[in-house]
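Example record

The entry below shows one chain as it appears in the dataset: sequence first, then structure tokens.
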Amino acid sequence: MMTFPSLKNLQQSVSRVLKRFPFEILFAFVATLAAIAYIELESLNYLKESWCKRVMMTAALGLVISLATTLFCESRSIKTPQRLIYNSIAALLTAVLFFTFNPLINAADLIRFFLLILAGHLLVAFAAFTKAGTIQGFWQFNKTLFLHFSTTALYSAALYAGIAAAIGAMNFLFSADFKYDTFYILWVCITGIFNTVFFLSGVPDNFSKLNQDFSYPKGLKIFTQYVLIPLATIYVVILLAYEIKILVQWRLPKGLVSYLILGYAVFGILSLLLIFPIREKQENKWIKTFARTFYFLMLPLLFLLFVALGTRVADYGLTEPRYFLTLLASWLLFITLYFLLSKKQNIKIIPISLCLFTLVSIYGPQSAFSVSTYSQKTILLRIFKDNHAFQDGKLVRINKISKKDGEKAVATLEYLISHNDFEVLQPYVTQNLKVASDSLSKVKDSYGHLRTSRYDILDQKMKWMISYFGLKKFSGNRFYFDRGDQQEEKHYILNTSEPEITVVTGYDFMIDQANINYEDTHNHYVIDKISIDTENKKAGILQVRLNNDTAVFNVNELISDLMKEESKLKPYLQKSNRDDPPEYNLPSSLLSFTKKTKNFRVMFKINSIRFSLDKSKKISLLNYATGVYLIKKR
């Protein structure tokens, strides 16, 4: 007979989770609220949006760090009062990160966040197994977490799909008005609250029992033996063949080889971790042979990896991605040498060492961001010195430089400014960059709006710095010199004040005309034995033929004449968001013009038009336009 869990059992399960993981649930709740607020505020309040993101990031980190702290305390049998102190310290450390994180100002903070999250998850993997002799428990614990996480993800997805379908059905059947953001909020609540509580309910708490558990899923062995290991073998055969080709041809390796080697390392190490508990069984002696073979084959591949990385670093210097690839290669070399030389074969060294390597890369002079900045500054200084533009310890305007060096200098400046902001170059520039930065933040765009977005201001700083050094001609088609800076284009929207209403008094018939911004469009009508053809020979140039009569309307010319006295249109200017172009709602008389032929009088009335003007107030681009023909027989 099928039994269903009672509400009492459900309540007890939730109570156990709340009692065991109070800090983790609190962080999950805060992150969920911040995510909901972000959804509601998106594109409405830039500053509050930023605060919501920082709260979400901090709470996510707090959850992971608190979980690792709780597991460590439980494994050491630390009593509740002391445990609360440890968790409070962890929470305070996380709160400090809130004041240091600002990803909308410093792009590196987003990378730091993901690195800290990675380090936190690795910490959870071994926090309860810091004592010696706990390798079996460590393996069983992480196996249980992985399987329970997969179950949790499946349940969460099913719950979301079911409730989302119910909401959609209510919208369809009962004309309910649930907006699209309802589905986002639903997903946030399920992943933030249900997913967290359900996952934490399955976290093992009897660590000594895990250490005595030698059970092993048969399906896991089959998956590893017949899927992962063959894939790893295919990888290594391809890579070794490529290495032989390089030696024969004596040619530098391609950049993609780095990712192939890392892929082989991931497959191989994952395979060895999955079959670790059964390596000592008599029928599985091949596992030890495979392990030693794997690590021996890693040595020539790691040499190839370091050669590939060294080639790129020598040519272009260190950047964050190359730093992380180099760090990962160094970690793989450490792991390889450890398992080849050590008799202990302690698999806990894998997450512990990777966690330490990750933490080393986040803050400090050895971090990815400090080392990358130093490397790129060195490259920039070398370019300026080689081109006689370095005087008294300062970079000066370049008078003559090769195209290769000019483009490299521009790319390096872009990297330094986008990753570190403007002031990173202050020691090498006589100009006060703080003053220049303040001035650039007050520059208005082509619509007369202040540039408050980080990205807009960053564009201005890049443009200023590249122009300051006389490198603008090497900027190519980069976005900050393209967006209205070369042609000084401005964008506009003009609408008829009442586009839904068209007065047809005094006319015989009306024809809607859409897409007047397209070329080579043609429509044919027959009304009262009158053959009518409307054509767009060119964007904005309209022609209407009525039997043998022809009328031509130049929309571009009408708009250009109208916009030459833009100041007179101010009474019709509509309020708009900062990033929107000016929008005017004009009387129909200003957006209409009439042509007379031998047998007809034709008026063309513009309903709506979007366009760009160049410096001479002529239309450079017609984005969208609609209108109507009003036709009267004479």
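Notes for this example: Confidence is low (pLDDT under 50) at residues 482-487. The chain has 18 helices and 13 strands.
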